[in-house]
Design a protein that fits this description.
The chain is an alpha/beta fold. 39% of the residues lie in helices and 14% in strands. Strands 1-3-2-4-5-6-7 form a 7-stranded mixed beta sheet, with helices on both faces. The longest helix is centred in the middle third of the chain and has 18 residues.
Length: 281
Protein backbone atom coordinates (compact mmCIF):
# COMPACT_ATOMS: atom_id res chain seq x y z
CA UNK A 1 0.00 0.00 0.00
CA UNK A 2 1.60 3.33 -1.03
CA UNK A 3 1.72 6.07 1.57
CA UNK A 4 -0.73 8.83 0.65
CA UNK A 5 -0.01 12.47 1.19
CA UNK A 6 -3.03 14.69 1.76
CA UNK A 7 -3.58 15.60 -1.87
CA UNK A 8 -6.32 16.12 -4.43
CA UNK A 9 -7.43 13.19 -6.60
CA UNK A 10 -5.17 14.38 -9.40
CA UNK A 11 -2.29 14.68 -6.95
CA UNK A 12 -2.59 11.01 -6.07
CA UNK A 13 -1.56 10.08 -9.61
CA UNK A 14 2.04 11.09 -8.91
CA UNK A 15 2.39 8.44 -6.20
CA UNK A 16 2.84 5.56 -8.62
CA UNK A 17 3.63 4.81 -12.22
CA UNK A 18 1.77 1.50 -12.61
CA UNK A 19 -1.37 1.11 -14.68
CA UNK A 20 -3.32 0.35 -11.48
CA UNK A 21 -3.74 4.09 -10.97
CA UNK A 22 -5.14 4.64 -14.46
CA UNK A 23 -7.57 1.72 -14.66
CA UNK A 24 -10.87 2.62 -16.22
CA UNK A 25 -13.96 2.04 -14.05
CA UNK A 26 -16.09 -0.92 -15.07
CA UNK A 27 -19.88 -1.20 -15.22
CA UNK A 28 -21.03 -2.97 -13.18
CA UNK A 29 -18.39 -2.60 -10.49
CA UNK A 30 -16.64 -5.97 -9.97
CA UNK A 31 -17.21 -7.58 -6.57
CA UNK A 32 -16.39 -10.76 -4.65
CA UNK A 33 -19.21 -12.21 -2.55
CA UNK A 34 -18.62 -14.10 0.71
CA UNK A 35 -21.75 -15.75 2.11
CA UNK A 36 -22.51 -15.48 5.82
CA UNK A 37 -21.24 -18.20 8.13
CA UNK A 38 -24.82 -18.89 9.23
CA UNK A 39 -26.21 -19.33 5.73
CA UNK A 40 -29.13 -17.12 6.80
CA UNK A 41 -27.82 -13.59 6.43
CA UNK A 42 -29.83 -10.68 7.81
CA UNK A 43 -27.13 -8.04 7.28
CA UNK A 44 -24.58 -6.93 4.69
CA UNK A 45 -21.12 -5.42 4.99
CA UNK A 46 -19.45 -3.89 1.91
CA UNK A 47 -15.65 -3.54 1.77
CA UNK A 48 -13.89 -0.68 -0.06
CA UNK A 49 -10.15 -1.17 -0.71
CA UNK A 50 -7.31 1.29 -0.57
CA UNK A 51 -5.14 2.62 -3.36
CA UNK A 52 -3.51 -0.29 -5.25
CA UNK A 53 -5.42 -2.89 -3.20
CA UNK A 54 -8.12 -5.20 -4.49
CA UNK A 55 -11.11 -7.15 -3.24
CA UNK A 56 -9.07 -10.29 -2.59
CA UNK A 57 -6.85 -8.48 -0.08
CA UNK A 58 -9.63 -8.42 2.52
CA UNK A 59 -9.94 -12.21 2.70
CA UNK A 60 -6.17 -12.63 2.47
CA UNK A 61 -5.75 -10.38 5.52
CA UNK A 62 -8.40 -12.06 7.64
CA UNK A 63 -11.19 -9.47 7.39
CA UNK A 64 -13.86 -11.89 6.20
CA UNK A 65 -13.02 -14.36 8.97
CA UNK A 66 -13.11 -11.56 11.56
CA UNK A 67 -16.60 -10.54 10.42
CA UNK A 68 -17.83 -14.13 10.55
CA UNK A 69 -16.49 -14.55 14.09
CA UNK A 70 -18.12 -11.32 15.25
CA UNK A 71 -21.51 -11.92 13.64
CA UNK A 72 -22.21 -15.00 11.50
CA UNK A 73 -25.31 -13.39 9.93
CA UNK A 74 -23.42 -10.86 7.80
CA UNK A 75 -22.93 -11.44 4.10
CA UNK A 76 -19.77 -9.74 2.84
CA UNK A 77 -19.20 -8.04 -0.51
CA UNK A 78 -15.62 -7.00 -1.29
CA UNK A 79 -15.59 -4.43 -4.07
CA UNK A 80 -12.99 -3.59 -6.68
CA UNK A 81 -13.62 0.13 -6.08
CA UNK A 82 -10.24 1.20 -7.44
CA UNK A 83 -8.92 4.70 -8.00
CA UNK A 84 -10.49 4.95 -11.46
CA UNK A 85 -13.92 5.40 -9.84
CA UNK A 86 -12.61 8.31 -7.77
CA UNK A 87 -10.74 9.87 -10.68
CA UNK A 88 -13.89 9.83 -12.82
CA UNK A 89 -16.13 10.74 -9.85
CA UNK A 90 -18.36 7.71 -10.42
CA UNK A 91 -17.74 5.88 -7.14
CA UNK A 92 -21.07 6.82 -5.53
CA UNK A 93 -23.04 6.17 -8.71
CA UNK A 94 -21.63 2.67 -9.20
CA UNK A 95 -21.77 1.70 -5.52
CA UNK A 96 -25.41 2.70 -5.44
CA UNK A 97 -26.50 1.10 -8.71
CA UNK A 98 -24.36 -2.05 -8.65
CA UNK A 99 -24.08 -2.95 -4.96
CA UNK A 100 -26.14 -1.07 -2.40
CA UNK A 101 -29.46 -0.24 -4.03
CA UNK A 102 -30.08 -3.87 -5.11
CA UNK A 103 -29.27 -5.00 -1.55
CA UNK A 104 -31.37 -2.46 0.34
CA UNK A 105 -34.56 -4.54 0.41
CA UNK A 106 -32.79 -7.79 1.31
CA UNK A 107 -30.97 -6.86 4.50
CA UNK A 108 -31.89 -5.37 7.88
CA UNK A 109 -28.54 -3.56 8.15
CA UNK A 110 -25.93 -2.40 5.66
CA UNK A 111 -22.44 -1.31 6.70
CA UNK A 112 -19.44 0.01 4.78
CA UNK A 113 -15.82 -0.73 5.66
CA UNK A 114 -13.19 1.43 3.97
CA UNK A 115 -9.42 1.39 4.18
CA UNK A 116 -7.29 4.45 3.33
CA UNK A 117 -8.68 5.66 -0.02
CA UNK A 118 -11.68 3.41 0.59
CA UNK A 119 -12.17 5.19 3.90
CA UNK A 120 -12.90 8.50 2.26
CA UNK A 121 -14.95 6.55 -0.28
CA UNK A 122 -17.19 5.28 2.50
CA UNK A 123 -17.53 8.76 3.96
CA UNK A 124 -18.34 10.22 0.54
CA UNK A 125 -21.07 7.64 -0.02
CA UNK A 126 -22.61 8.26 3.39
CA UNK A 127 -22.46 12.03 2.83
CA UNK A 128 -24.06 11.81 -0.61
CA UNK A 129 -26.75 9.26 0.44
CA UNK A 130 -28.06 10.28 3.87
CA UNK A 131 -29.82 7.45 5.66
CA UNK A 132 -28.81 4.80 3.13
CA UNK A 133 -26.36 2.93 5.36
CA UNK A 134 -26.39 2.01 9.03
CA UNK A 135 -22.73 2.18 9.91
CA UNK A 136 -19.15 2.80 8.84
CA UNK A 137 -15.88 1.24 9.93
CA UNK A 138 -13.10 3.43 8.53
CA UNK A 139 -9.49 2.36 8.87
CA UNK A 140 -6.82 5.02 8.34
CA UNK A 141 -9.17 6.95 6.05
CA UNK A 142 -7.68 9.34 3.53
CA UNK A 143 -8.58 12.83 4.78
CA UNK A 144 -8.19 15.06 1.72
CA UNK A 145 -6.36 18.39 1.64
CA UNK A 146 -4.26 18.92 4.75
CA UNK A 147 -5.16 22.61 4.95
CA UNK A 148 -8.71 21.65 5.99
CA UNK A 149 -7.38 19.57 8.88
CA UNK A 150 -5.13 22.48 9.88
CA UNK A 151 -8.12 24.83 9.91
CA UNK A 152 -10.15 22.42 12.04
CA UNK A 153 -7.25 21.98 14.47
CA UNK A 154 -6.66 25.75 14.65
CA UNK A 155 -10.34 26.25 15.51
CA UNK A 156 -10.01 23.83 18.43
CA UNK A 157 -11.72 20.84 16.82
CA UNK A 158 -14.86 19.97 14.89
CA UNK A 159 -17.20 21.37 17.54
CA UNK A 160 -15.80 24.88 17.20
CA UNK A 161 -14.91 24.82 13.50
CA UNK A 162 -17.08 26.96 11.22
CA UNK A 163 -16.97 25.53 7.68
CA UNK A 164 -16.60 28.12 4.93
CA UNK A 165 -19.47 28.44 2.44
CA UNK A 166 -19.12 25.78 -0.23
CA UNK A 167 -19.66 28.33 -2.98
CA UNK A 168 -16.50 30.12 -1.83
CA UNK A 169 -14.31 27.04 -2.39
CA UNK A 170 -12.61 26.78 -5.75
CA UNK A 171 -12.19 23.41 -7.43
CA UNK A 172 -14.45 20.36 -7.40
CA UNK A 173 -11.95 18.24 -5.46
CA UNK A 174 -11.58 20.78 -2.69
CA UNK A 175 -15.34 21.23 -2.41
CA UNK A 176 -15.78 17.48 -2.06
CA UNK A 177 -13.16 17.29 0.69
CA UNK A 178 -14.92 20.12 2.51
CA UNK A 179 -18.22 18.25 2.17
CA UNK A 180 -16.63 15.18 3.77
CA UNK A 181 -15.34 17.23 6.70
CA UNK A 182 -18.83 18.76 7.08
CA UNK A 183 -20.14 15.19 7.20
CA UNK A 184 -17.70 14.35 10.00
CA UNK A 185 -18.80 17.50 11.83
CA UNK A 186 -22.28 15.97 11.96
CA UNK A 187 -21.01 13.65 14.71
CA UNK A 188 -20.80 16.77 16.87
CA UNK A 189 -23.80 18.75 15.65
CA UNK A 190 -26.36 16.00 14.88
CA UNK A 191 -25.06 12.60 16.06
CA UNK A 192 -28.52 11.00 16.34
CA UNK A 193 -29.01 11.27 12.59
CA UNK A 194 -25.57 10.02 11.55
CA UNK A 195 -24.63 6.44 10.68
CA UNK A 196 -22.67 4.73 13.43
CA UNK A 197 -18.97 5.38 12.92
CA UNK A 198 -15.98 3.36 14.14
CA UNK A 199 -12.41 4.53 13.46
CA UNK A 200 -9.15 2.58 13.55
CA UNK A 201 -5.64 3.70 12.65
CA UNK A 202 -1.95 3.49 13.49
CA UNK A 203 -0.52 6.06 15.86
CA UNK A 204 2.40 6.73 13.50
CA UNK A 205 0.21 6.98 10.39
CA UNK A 206 0.71 10.21 8.45
CA UNK A 207 -3.08 10.65 8.60
CA UNK A 208 -3.25 10.21 12.39
CA UNK A 209 -3.40 13.93 13.35
CA UNK A 210 -6.30 14.58 10.94
CA UNK A 211 -8.14 11.36 11.85
CA UNK A 212 -7.70 12.23 15.52
CA UNK A 213 -9.83 15.35 15.01
CA UNK A 214 -12.74 13.10 14.00
CA UNK A 215 -11.97 10.50 16.66
CA UNK A 216 -12.31 13.19 19.33
CA UNK A 217 -15.99 13.56 18.37
CA UNK A 218 -16.75 9.86 18.97
CA UNK A 219 -17.22 7.76 22.11
CA UNK A 220 -13.88 6.15 23.09
CA UNK A 221 -15.20 2.63 22.47
CA UNK A 222 -15.72 3.53 18.79
CA UNK A 223 -12.04 4.32 18.25
CA UNK A 224 -9.13 1.87 18.18
CA UNK A 225 -5.47 2.73 17.66
CA UNK A 226 -2.21 0.85 17.91
CA UNK A 227 1.45 1.53 17.29
CA UNK A 228 2.36 1.49 13.61
CA UNK A 229 1.88 3.22 10.32
CA UNK A 230 -0.17 2.92 7.15
CA UNK A 231 -0.14 -0.84 6.57
CA UNK A 232 -2.27 -3.97 6.61
CA UNK A 233 -0.75 -5.36 9.82
CA UNK A 234 -2.12 -2.33 11.69
CA UNK A 235 -5.51 -2.34 9.96
CA UNK A 236 -6.00 -6.05 10.61
CA UNK A 237 -5.36 -5.63 14.35
CA UNK A 238 -7.61 -2.61 14.84
CA UNK A 239 -10.36 -4.14 12.69
CA UNK A 240 -10.34 -7.32 14.77
CA UNK A 241 -10.81 -5.14 17.86
CA UNK A 242 -13.54 -2.93 16.37
CA UNK A 243 -15.73 -5.38 14.48
CA UNK A 244 -17.17 -7.21 17.54
CA UNK A 245 -18.15 -3.82 19.01
CA UNK A 246 -19.68 -2.59 15.78
CA UNK A 247 -21.43 -5.80 14.69
CA UNK A 248 -22.40 -7.78 17.81
CA UNK A 249 -24.38 -10.93 17.15
CA UNK A 250 -28.10 -10.55 17.88
CA UNK A 251 -30.32 -13.37 19.12
CA UNK A 252 -33.47 -12.22 17.35
CA UNK A 253 -33.97 -11.04 13.81
CA UNK A 254 -35.20 -7.52 13.26
CA UNK A 255 -38.50 -6.57 11.61
CA UNK A 256 -39.12 -7.74 8.05
CA UNK A 257 -38.30 -5.64 4.98
CA UNK A 258 -40.82 -2.99 4.14
CA UNK A 259 -39.76 -0.23 6.49
CA UNK A 260 -37.03 2.14 5.41
CA UNK A 261 -33.52 0.81 5.97
CA UNK A 262 -32.55 3.11 8.84
CA UNK A 263 -36.02 2.70 10.40
CA UNK A 264 -35.78 -1.11 10.20
CA UNK A 265 -32.40 -0.93 11.94
CA UNK A 266 -33.67 1.25 14.77
CA UNK A 267 -36.59 -1.10 15.38
CA UNK A 268 -34.31 -4.13 15.19
CA UNK A 269 -31.90 -2.60 17.69
CA UNK A 270 -34.73 -1.89 20.10
CA UNK A 271 -36.01 -5.48 19.94
CA UNK A 272 -32.77 -7.46 19.85
CA UNK A 273 -30.22 -8.15 22.56
CA UNK A 274 -26.63 -9.31 22.22
CA UNK A 275 -26.40 -13.10 22.29
CA UNK A 276 -25.05 -14.65 25.47
CA UNK A 277 -23.79 -18.14 26.07
CA UNK A 278 -26.11 -20.48 28.01
CA UNK A 279 -23.88 -20.13 31.06
CA UNK A 280 -23.74 -16.35 30.81
CA UNK A 281 -25.72 -13.89 32.93
Amino acid sequence: MPRLALLSWSGLLVLGSGCVYLRAPETPMPTVFHASASGDAAHLIVLLPGLADGPEDFADNGFVDAIRRANPRFDVVATDAHFGYYRTRTLGERLYADVLEPAAARYDEIWLVGISLGGIGGAIYAQEHPGAIDGLILLAPYMGDDDIARDVAAAGGLASWTPPPLESIEGEDRRKFHEVWRFYRGYVTDPANMPRLYLGYGEQDDFAPAIGLVAAALPPEQVQTRAGGHRWSVWRTVFEALVPRALPARCRRGPPPGLGLRRRTRVAASRAAPCRSPSGP
